[in-house]
Design goal:
- The chain has two domains: about 180 residues, no CATH class; about 150 residues, 2-Layer Sandwich (Heat Shock Protein 90).
- The chain has eleven helices and seven strands.
- It has a five-stranded mixed β-sheet with strand order 2-4-5-7-6, with helices on one face. A two-stranded antiparallel ribbon has the order 1-3.
- The radius of gyration is 39 Å and the shape is rod-shaped.
């Protein structure tokens, strides 16, 4: 099983972790081993400390590279479970292996450190004579134990920092995949809602067309042309979540022609939207078609008392309203219309659709998309 490259540390990440650990490790080691630090001691030991820092960075980076290789090898044997699941057997096995390796690495590092001290400090033997009393021997042994413990702890810290970095990368991928699946799910729901409109739209207009063919063949030809134009719009906008307001308003003109073929002067659609607003704002496709259709379905209209649907903008909202002239018996609802619009805007999270009655008018406020 090949490891996902996303879950391996880059060379830069390894060097960065190695440097971070060395910056912490060297001051603590100096504190343990140097009893008094004055100006003379500081400048005398500074070359040693600088070389020690460089060597420590290289050492810790090499250690991180080694354990990275080890964990990839374990991954091939046991799979993702070993790297990413926090089960006790995996933790215990990893901990035991890491401690054994850290002790082994410490032996080599201790030898290297002693070699640097002797090589870079000509007075090392003078300043560090062999212990001459049991107490001094005890103190020397304690200092060595502290140095060994410090190095092992630093190595273990590097081990877990590398493991945590990998887990963090895995969590990022899981989060990213979750967001991607959520967006795909929202898109699928959105497309499903749009697809509901198409057959419903065609069914209503084919009913009108069938009656026109017999009563007015010439008008039926115009009707077919406008119907073709309208349906092309429905098909073309299927791939968009939102479109320019101008494009939707142009479609409204075509759709209004289809309605006026049926209702003549009983229906009027008045649009009060500036040229600037038409070009700078967007809305969900077919919003206006569904709102006009909803008004026609539920309200009475006549030549003496036409139904006037008004479309205007205010406070970054598109306001569609009509007087309440409710039919005595409304047409059966298909479940489309208002609920379809509410659902689509909810999926886009562009703001709520507000629906209500104001001063004898039915008002729908649609958030404009900037």
């Amino acid at each position: 099983m090949k490891v996902n490259p996303q879950f391996t540390l880059t060379h830069f990440q390894k060097w960065k972790l190695g440097f971070s650990l060395a910056i912490i490790y060297i001051p603590i080691r100096v504190y343990i081993n140097v009893a008094v630090i004055d100006q003379k001691v500081f400048f005398h030991k500074l070359p040693l400390w600088i070389v020690s820092l460089i060597v420590s960075v290289v050492f810790f980076t090499f250690w991180i590279t080694f354990i990275e290789w080890l964990q990839q090898y374990l991954h091939k044997l046991f799979g993702d479970v070993f790297l990413f699941e926090f089960k006790f057997p995996s933790q215990l096995t990893t901990l035991v292996i890491a401690i054994e390796l850290a002790v082994l690495f410490n032996s080599g590092f201790r030898t290297l450190w002693r070699f640097m001290e002797v090589s870079l400090d000509p007075l090392y033997a003078v300043n560090n004579p062999p212990p001459s009393t049991p107490q001094m021997l005890y103190m020397e042994n304690q200092r060595k134990r502290l140095n060994n413990g410090l190095t092992v702890m630093a190595l273990m810290a590097a081990f877990y920092l590398a493991a945590n970095r990998r887990v963090y990368q895995r969590l990022q991928e899981v989060h990213s995949n979750s967001e991607r699946l959520e967006k795909e799910n929202v898109k699928a729901q959105f497309n499903a809602l749009k697809n509901q409109v198409s057959p419903h739209f065609m069914f209503n207009n084919f009913s009108v067309l069938s009656s026109l063919i017999e009563s007015d063949p010439e008008l039926s030809i115009q009707f077919v042309n406008q119907l073709s134009k309208a349906y092309r719009y429905i098909l073309e906008q299927a791939s968009f979540d939102h479109i320019k307001l101008r494009t939707e308003l142009e479609f409204v003109e075509t759709y209004t022609f289809l309605l006026k073929t049926r209702f003549e002067e009983k229906l009027k659609v008045e649009i009060e939207v500036s040229e600037y607003e038409r070009d700078h704002y967007s809305i969900v496709p077919l919003t206006l078609q569904l709102l006009i259709e909803n008004a026609v379905k539920h309200n009475q209209m006549s030549s003496e008392n036409p139904l006037i649907v008004t479309i205007r903008t205010k406070d970054l909202q598109l306001i569609v309203s009509n007087p309440l002239q409710l039919r005595p018996v409304s047409e059966p609802s298909t479940g489309l219309g208002l609920q379809n619009i509410i659902n689509r805007y909810s999926l886009l999270k562009s703001g709520p659709v507000k629906i209500g009655e104001q001063e004898g008018r039915f008002v729908v406020k649609i958030p404009l998309i900037t």
